[in-house]
Fold this sequence. Notes:
single chain, 85% helix, elongated, mainly alpha
Amino acid sequence: xxxxxxxxxxxxxxxxxxxxxxxxxxxxxxxxxxxxxxxxxxxxxxxxxxxxxxxxxxxxxxxxxxxxxxxxxxxxxxxxxxxxxxxxxxxxxxxxxxxxxxxxxxxxxxxxxxxxxxxxxxxxxxxxxxxxxxxxxxxxxx
Length: 142
């Protein structure tokens, strides 16, 4: 079952990367595309990790929960990236080509930032529920 979960996580990560790559278009250099993808994905990993840490700060599982943390973080990062990064990638492509001025590009980034903030707040409470569910299962076994 764990292998199936890892395969699924790998697939959604690949879908996320391919989707962002596609939305960056053919006009940009390969180097620019990969830098955009790597930085965007790294920012997503950092944001989701911080939200996970904040969401589970008051939950003490009394066990090493690194495997659960990794599964949750590695699952939610590509989902967040699929929701936000293609729109930013498309806007970035138009901005670098000169077809989008700086102010509308900034406004689009702010809009996506607000959407991402709403998603992260929802995930904050969801992560608490997940960890409390795990805690309940562990307590029931004892």
